[in-house]
Amino acid sequence: MKLLFPGLAIITGLTFLGCSHTAELSGGHMLEDEKGVNYSVIYYIHADSDYLYHDSEGKSFRENSGVLEIAINVGEEALSGEVFIYHQRPVRKILGLFPRRSSQLYYYRNGQLISHIKYRHPDKKEAFLATEADLMKRFRAQKLGENHQNYFLYFGHEIPSENGKGYHRTLPAIDVNTESFTKGVRNLLQSDTDRFSLAVLSTCNNGTPAMAKDLMPFTNAMFASPQNLHLSHIDSESMALLENEPGILPLQLGRAMANKTFERLTETIHTTITLSLYDLKELQGYIHSLESVTALLNTTDRIARFKDNVDCAEIYPDESDFYRQGVETWYKPARFGRQSSNTTHSGWGCKPGVK
User: What is the pTM of this model?
Assistant: First the structure.
């Protein structure tokens, strides 16, 4: 009898878990008459960490649930597009032994929820976004509009420049850093010649020369914060403009998101607010030299890597105007403190150890 209950528990757990790392919750059908899509939007919402956000009325949102609600609304309004929403949640285990399918994918096409599945990462040491890329291959539309565009939106904590172990609290062996992030994002594209029209990084401190340089080979524009977003997020309701204003340019879409986000943050935050929209085509003439300067002068102090960014113009004041080409910045200084008298920002973030 002592051996019976553990044995039954194991059998029950294995039966419940099954062999597949995915499970269909709803949908499971593809459209018989595929209309094709004019755009593809990919949301990746990271919730495998300590996320807690309060809106202006004090309502709390956990696991980036507020961002998820907005993404679902965008998917329902995408009558001529497709929307992938990955909600990467903490791994939970059955009986403390067997990993459950905790993360979720919502796939919308032409405004319809085609599939809603739960999934887990079968390899605890896999490359970042590997499972998500495999799921995209199963569902993505094959019929694309003539001027089809791709958009990627990432919501999470700061993506570190290196290492990145432990970024996922329950999948600590999956490295998340600038290199693994950009490689993973690129693998979400359908081919080597495909590009993202706009990449949105709703994170702290990732409006950096290094991130822009690594995204540039397959991305036209980047919207990010060079400094701290204060556990808040970039508003993505403006993604609905892809449907409501057909033909809107990626930079126009980025400006719409920037304006809406900046307006909300200005009403609720008294510390520094910095948002930047980068035209990566316009940066090609100087991004490598800028990234080299900031990389060479960066401190070897590991503690500084975990500090919030400062304005990169502090280390190249004589050339700051040159490095602002192709960068639009929404900036509001802190109400109090040493930086409260600043009126401008280069749009680039660097760690404070850089001198």
Answer: 0.88
